[in-house]
Amino acid sequence: MTLNPEIAAVTDRVIERSRPTRAAYLQLIADQRDRNVKRPQLGCANLAHGFAGTDEDRETLKAGQAINIGIVTAYNDMLSAHATYYRYPEQMKVWAREAGATAQVAGGVPAMCDGVTQGYAGMELSLFSRDTIALSTAVSLSHNMFEAAALLGICDKIVPGLLMGALRFGHLPTIFIPGGPMRSGIANKAKAQVREAYAEGKATREELLDSEIAAYHGKGTCTFYGTANSNQMMMEMMGLHVPGAAFANPGTKLRQELTRAAVHQLARIGWNGDDYRPLGLCVDEKAVVNAAIGLLATGGSTNHLIHLPAMAACAGIVIDWEDFDRLSRTVPLVARVYPNGNADVNQFEDAGGTPYVVRELLSAGLLHRDILTVAGGDLADYGRKPQVDDAGTLSWVDPGASGDDAILRPAAAPFSPEGGFRILTGNIGRACIKVSAVERDRWVIEAPARVFTDQQAVLDAFKAGELDRDVVVVVRFQGPRANGMPELHKLTPPLGVLQNRGHRVALVTDGRMSGASGKVPCAIHLSPEALGGGPIGRLRDGDVVRLDAEAGTLDALVDAGEWDARDLAPAPPPEQGTGRELFALLRQDATEAERGASAVLAAMGW
Q1: Peptide bond into 339 cis (omega under 30)
Q2: What range(s) does the Dihydroxy-acid/6-phosphogluconate dehydratase C-terminal domain occupy (predicted)?
Q3: What is the pTM of this model?
Q4: Does residue 522 have a known ligand-binding role?
Q5: Is 155 annotated as a binding residue?
């Protein structure tokens, strides 16, 4: 199938804009591959330190002939998605030996759970945990002991941070190894209903807790289609998984064999292997565009409007929100997964999952097939579904027709002819909005503003009945430089309640919403942010704000002269405690949201 001309044009735009930085990046990884110190060249004392902690693999490492895989793990047993990684390193070492290779845990990275910190002070560390993970990954891979890397991470900031760090070692062949989603608990829609009931005082805390425990009940990724599961879809679209690895459940034979296959494949594509596939060449402009297309076609997380530009930048690639906007107007929405539908990711997988989406988009000319993948072929491999037979043999088959057309539809008969994202611009700034879960009659909201500087104040105003009307809730000083850009997920239930009561409601913020953001229109990631002079600082209670996702505008309907003459609201003092003061250096140097909201990127000159 011929590539869609608009996708070709956007890709060409990304390639041209990235030309100087991509060339510099490719030179960097070539230098590291050819001129950097290699393991056999390390001094004897250095080498001895490098395998002093090993027993069974010591002689192999001493000989220096076999590929040594560096495992970077985000294991902890407080985060359900990462608790699955407990035994992975020891299993992977066995599977590496099967393939004539060795493996060592190169290091660990922090993995916080946004589900635990939502609405509390720890959430202000969340976004910059991504930069911390990137730095930790770099430390892990800095020892010149490895010819390939395996990245064990799944959730919100962990996958972006791992990839950002690993791309600075882009000469190493690298595969992401997921752990899979937990089995389905109560339906996500039922969970949301209990949350809204609790927000109205119609459910007790005990009822709410029981509901949440029924939803989040075991090891594995949460089952809604938020940032964590969007991560997994994107790694498939970029060809960085073993094909179809994203959504196999933990503890299954299929999950085990996919991980085993990843280790064996690293031995094949490693530094000294027969089919060298370095990460920095796999992650090219076409792969980045594929990730954006997959995100739009499935109604994925808005967080990736920050993460994908940051990940791409670490490979010398520049993608911006205009690229997302143009792609969104071309790419059809082919999946309905909560919060964009009623299904969870297990039902999505049963209906055909990511392999179905890849196959459909490829057949419609909506993806780049010709990318260098870790699997050894091209993207068509990712349009096939993995299975294990009774003998334990792993194979891949065509996913067939959709198993449920309420969840997955062909590209020729989608849920919507467009994806789920729009840019909004106006006198308040430049923001983005996820519209795939928003009813079309809510795409335009015009109402008086109520302005806040923190999430709790919104919740207090809701409980006091002060928001029980048509309202645009404005929450400012939530940007990356102000307080680390926390997600404002706690606002979803009360805003949903107001909308259910028949009010015209929207949110405008320089902060983030969760990957689980849903039916209420939200203009998020507003840039420039309030700290430092963004025009959102001019808004006052009672100003009429118009959010128009149809036209792509976001404006305060205030006389231009008055608007320009207004003083900016003063910034609240920075909060202390919960380690927030330790992240001040990262906050003060962060790039704007559209450029990745990252201090690491700022240090690189982005």
Answers
A1: yes
A2: 407-597
A3: 0.95
A4: no
A5: yes
